């Protein structure tokens, strides 16, 4: 598998950036107000105090349900719920797996006869030439080859592959591969996927799969070292 330069949800990131800018503006305005009020008190009385009513107003501002930070937290939780399947989400794609290319890429044939190439979101398995690369492919094949799977599509990468979370028999296959020690949590492309982070930590601690090695080489480092060979 070649390095997948994901687009990583550029459109959705713009929307989220707008929300976060709104939050920052609100906090900045609150800070400016506090500084101005403090300066006024210092000039008037020679000391700075924080009246209880101002503190109460600040607390009410950050505690109100429509506050920006509440909305941002809700957005992240909604995204996580969709990707992790709690409850099991509606699938963007559904069909039979007709090919497993490696540990994190498969081809799915939908009911209309159209074939889709799927790159697993948030994980990265060893390259086939690496230690555990063929084992990762075999582990994925055992789970999904010739089976019906559902996919929650997150984005499309520069190779035209649909990047998503794959479910087989209600199991999040992305996370299962990490739990079993056949994949890394791809933190660069999925930094907020807390459950993948936990799954990797548990696999490391138990020395499952590739973590049985003292110093396994992440596939992104392996690709960089072997680029052009």
TrEMBL record:
Region Disordered: start-end pairs: 210-229
TNase-like domain mapped to chain residues: 91-213
Pfam families on file: SNase
Gene3D superfamilies: 2.40.50.90
Entry keywords, A to Z: Endonuclease, Hydrolase, Nuclease
Record keyword Hydrolase present: yes
Single annotated GO MF: hydrolase activity
Name of this protein: Thermonuclease family protein
The organism of origin for this protein: Sediminihaliea albiluteola
